[in-house]
Amino acid sequence: MWATALSGLYLSWQAAVLIGLSAGAVGLIAWHRAWWPKAGAIALVLAGPIAGAWVGSHVLRAETHPLRLAADEGRTTTVTAELSTRPRGIRAAGFGGHQAGVDHVVVTATANGATVVILAPAAQWRDLLPGQRVTVKGSLAPPRPGDLTSALLRVRGPPADVQPPPAWQRWADHLRDGLSRASATLGEEEAGLLPALVVGDTEHMVPRIVDEFRTAGLAHLLAVSGANLAIVCGAVYLLLRKTGPRKAAVGALVALVGFVALAGPEPSVLRAAVMGAVALLALFIGRERSALPSLATTVLVLVLVDPALGADPGFALSVTATAALVLVAPRWARRLKERGVPQGFAEALAVPAVASLATAPLVVGLSGQISLVSVLANLAVAPVVAPATVLGVVAAVIAPLFPPAAEVVVHVAGPAVTWLVLVGRHAATVPGASLSWPEGWVGGLALAVVTAIVFLLLRNKKTRVLTVALLVGGFVALVPMRTIAPMWPPAGWKVVSCDVGQGDALVLATAEADRAVVVDTGPDPGAIDRCLRTLGITRIPLIVLSHLHADHIGGLQAVLAGRAVGAVAVGPLKEPAWAWKEVNEQARANGVRVLEPKAGERFAWPGLELEVLGPRRQPVVAETNTVVNDYSLVLRATTPAGRVLLTGDVELAGQAALLGERDLGAEVLKVPHHGSRSSLPAFLERVRPRVALVSVGTGNRYGHPSPQVIDALRAGGALVLRTDKDGDLAVLPGSRVVRRKRRRKMDQVWIRLHNARYPIPGGTPGFAWAMWQPGYPATQWPHDELKPDFAYYLCETLEDGSRAITYRARATHVLPPTEAADADAAYDLVAEHVFDDGMRIAPDVWHEYHYNALKAEAPWPQRIVAWRAEVEPVGPHVRDELRRFPRTGWTKSAAITL
């Protein structure tokens, strides 16, 4: 059944039918030749063809549904859909004045007999419940492979004609809200974790906790699984055990149904319910032999009812974990009890250990990493997971009846939840906590084979000692030596530009090893926290926020947490308002005062001095990104490595104001605004740095850094370093620089060009060219209205030897008539227009302006009505091997025209 589902989902419905018939034929031969018991052979004879027909019909119906055909053409449609799941938030990183958070939600629904996935605005959709019927209008797109979804529906507006949900759904939602309100009496991190632990509600989770749990191998605790159900039902069974086994079993069954209603009858929850029921069956009746047939039957029924489960990694993890729980966990628990461990505690220890080891090959196949702390972390949290879960369920049940009592129960669970946070945090900070491993099915299978061999060797008394010695030796050899003698940070570092993605975060060392000043905190709490941990910073006398954009303040909470912070300094412009409010609240919650230093003020610590150079102008009331950028705090730091000019995101007006300073010279320059085009040549010439640090994200959608700015810095004799290419950057005395490069994983994107007539010859030095050939799977050109005049592929060899492929197209962009003061203003105007279409102006290529006069030498200002330029999709380049792209010279239009 599983193989049939996989072949149908990833190949075709014909493949599913073929696999099913082949399985039936094998069963028939086995029956005639008595290879297996007759019951097994007959079961295969019957199940194979049935599975092939069933799965094949589902795949065929999904592929030929009218919504799928409309999705292939990118049509817009209006449908009436019934929601199948709760809306799940998609967290977006903040940048500029845009606040980080959940902007969109994903929800699965049924429309016209087909399964569709809806991507919609969070504010208008997040409160909907399963079972509600809505009318929705949006644009269709093809779904991902390996699924029975017929289409992806992108929605921009609110749902219409919203019908009320079933009564029991409203009741369950009321209980979940009660749990969230009661949990709010705990700390911020614990308040978000408890609902996630109990019912899988991650809406209020702190992003830092999510990252740490993933690193520590505890992410499974944030989703409803069979373990949750086993804990709840097991607690009820033990509570009612004295009333007799039948009454206890009925009580556990009622608890099972109630918990499914509380968590929501989504596919993952229903799957966990079935798996949890099987695990309970084995644990309660102690018959491991009967549990395996029950598990096999459960898998057969689930895949038959929903063939899409065959390709679901969560389903594979559930099956594997449940099999381990029913076959191995009881034996391990029994042996622990024989050694004097209490019964409940023994099971609490055995379950996570067995589940972690059994699912390791699958997890490695999905992630490409072996966690060295996962088992220990799960063992450490095992004793508190069950009490916290049970107490959370009790709080949810009583919250609507008596909220103060629910808050008391939550406070009782508080220490257990705090322990979970501490274990996840400390496990995530262990150096060398994970090892790289080949991902995919090959890597998973290889780890499974290695695990099986090691297990057999450990069971053999003759080879046990030798195996342990080899494991210890291998561990010492495989764990990176930097764990013992770290190469980072370099001795004597004075300035570090942390690789935090598309944002800024710099650390200025003092004469005390664990004490430093932090300037900006980047967009991501996890990135700046990791950077400070590797530097060993525990005391921060001052955090400087150059301005209140999301890519500079997003990691503030992570910097404040667990460190001694003296004060937070901000600039004179308190915009945007949400950011100013957030900074104040976080500082107040951590007992840290907020300062507003003025131009001319100085700060001094042993080994470090700071002088505030700007802004000197009075703040204005405006929230535009340019105004906020120009009011960035500008600092000059005096360090043993020389003077360091910290510029925030100052643009043209801010830099022009700084030119009035007597001496702007500095050995190290933090390049303004991630190296954007808004840098004055006169400003760069006045600073004339030896080292220029560009903090920028890989494949960012803004085109940062600008090639013109980079060329100007290099022409002035600066060594230009970029965090997107060089990782963390450390500056030492004598303008010496140490880079901490990281291995980066690039996304694959399939490309298909429309209205392409011919490729453009030539190109930038260092680039190779290759043509598309028919049959190559791809996605559509991202903008329906903007048709390229012609297009080409661009292939680049990266630093690690891999090749990157993207596409570029030359097109005419029509704009509303807008006056531009000069050529740079016109460029910025069009760059913003193109970005709204999901693209950026390609760097280092020819552009031409189209004005009313249609002449480049026309005097400024001009009213811009169109722009003709080469564009490319935003984001990282496409990574793929070139074997699909033969370099045989230029092809004619027939080779690329669709």
Short description, anyone?
The chain is an alpha+beta fold. Strands 16-15-13-11-10-9-24-25 form an 8-stranded mixed β-sheet, covered by helices on one side. Strands 17-18-19-20-21-22-23 form a 7-stranded mixed β-sheet. Strands 26, 27, 28, 29, 30, 31 and 32 form a 7-stranded antiparallel β-sheet that branches.
Biggest β-sheet description: 8 strands, mixed
Q: How would you describe the shape?
A: globular
Structural class of the helices, strands and pairings? Answer: alpha+beta
Q: Report how far the terminal alpha carbons are from each other.
A: 39 Å
Number of helices: 29
List the strand order in the largest sheet: 16-15-13-11-10-9-24-25
Helix content: 40-55%
Number of strands: 32
Mean pLDDT: 76
Q: What is Rg?
A: 30 Å
Percentage of β-strand residues: 15-25%
Q: What low-confidence regions span 5 or more consecutive residues with pLDDT below 50?
A: 480-485, 743-790, 795-804, 844-857, 875-898
Notes on the structure:
There is one protein chain. By secondary structure, the chain is of the alpha+beta class. The protein has 29 helices and 32 strands. Strands 16-15-13-11-10-9-24-25 form an eight-stranded mixed beta sheet, covered by helices on one side. Strands 17-18-19-20-21-22-23 form a seven-stranded mixed beta sheet. Strands 26, 27, 28, 29, 30, 31 and 32 form a seven-stranded antiparallel beta sheet that branches.
Topology:
Blueprint: H1 2-10, H2 13-33, H3 38-64, H4 66-72, E1 76-83, E2 88-92, E3 101-111, E4 114-121, H5 122-125, E5 133-141, E6 151-154, H6 167-183, H7 188-199, H8 207-216, H9 226-239, H10 245-263, H11 267-285, H12 288-305, H13 313-327, H14 329-338, H15 343-367, E7 369-371, H16 374-398, H17 403-428, E8 434-436, H18 440-459, H19 461-478, E9 495-497, E10 506-509, E11 516-519, H20 525-535, E12 539-540, E13 543-545, H21 550-553, H22 556-560, E14 564-565, E15 567-570, H23 577-589, E16 593-595, E17 602-605, E18 608-614, H24 625-630, E19 634-639, E20 642-646, H25 652-658, E21 668-670, H26 681-687, E22 691-694, H27 707-715, E23 719-722, H28 723-726, E24 728-732, E25 736-740, E26 767-768, E27 790-797, E28 803-820, H29 823-836, E29 839-841, E30 848-851, E31 862-873, E32 878-879
Parallel strand pairs: 4-6, 11-13, 12-14, 13-15, 15-16, 20-21, 21-22, 22-23
Antiparallel strand pairs: 1-3, 1-5, 2-3, 3-4, 5-6, 7-8, 9-10, 9-24, 10-11, 17-18, 18-19, 19-20, 24-25, 26-27, 27-28, 28-31, 28-32, 29-31, 30-31
